[in-house]
Amino acid sequence: MTGIFSALLLALRQLSDPAVLRVLGKSVAVTCALFLALAAAGWFVFDRVLQALGLGEALFAGADDLRALASALLALGGLWLVWRVVAMLVIQFFAAEVVHAVEARHYPHAASAARSLTTAQETKAGLRAGLRAVLFNLAAVPLALLLLFTGIGPALVFWVVNAALLGRELQDMVWLRHCHTADADCPVSGTQRFLLGGAVAALMLVPFANFLAPVLGAAAATHLVHRRDGT
């Protein structure tokens, strides 16, 4: 537990680093652009579906306005569900810059030994992580529905699922640049990985902090990997 707090604190302290700020600016800009595009597309799709179902002025006066409002709410709800997938997919493409910035300041020897991933490798890793997130979250829906009567049950289910997924993604962002054999074991333990993912998953639920969460997570994961392997 202490290691997680230490890694997150070190990551937070480096947010003022120009290299990290550049990544943060780019990731926020790209994430917002994707969300605006998805919001517009979602609104259009929901509006057309509701219209096809008969929700229009022919049904009752003001139905068009109600349909537009319902479509907007449905689109926003959908975006909230996929926020983590989109944010992590975006940071995947900037992860190398975050890792390099942390390594340059704290672990220069590791920085010199890191290997660069190709765009194809980064894209593959990002898409694989995104697909894994969608599938696991969909698989968790039945259990969340069963626990709906508890109030907090569904939130805990999705937090546990996303903590495990995020921990794995954040670890891989760093470890893939340092493992030189396919069967090399990452020095970060499963517990450390889960706790890091849980902390980042919780931050993603907090307005404004959710923009910082992926960058903080990537930086903290860098500290965990290198502190655990003794570099």
Description:
With 231 residues, this protein is an all-alpha fold. The chain has one domain. The protein is 79% helix and 0% strand. The protein is built from 8 helices and no strands. It has helices at residues 2-13, 18-52, 63-106, 108-113, 119-146, 153-175, 190-203, 209-228. The model has no long low-confidence stretch (mean pLDDT 82).
What does the average pLDDT come to? Answer: 82
| CA radius of gyration | 20 Å
Tell me about the biggest sheet? none
Question: What number of domains?
Answer: 1
Order of helices and strands: HHHHHHHH
Number of helices: 8
The fraction of residues in strands falls at under 5%
Q: How many strands in all?
A: 0
List low-pLDDT spans.
Answer: none
How would you name the oligomeric state of the polypeptide chains in this document? single chain
Helical residues, percent: over 70%
End-to-end separation in angstroms reads 20 Å
- Structural class estimated from helices and strands: mainly alpha
Shape: elongated
Subcellular location: Membrane
InterPro entries: CysZ/EI24 (IPR059112)
Organism: Alteraurantiacibacter lauratis
Main location: membrane
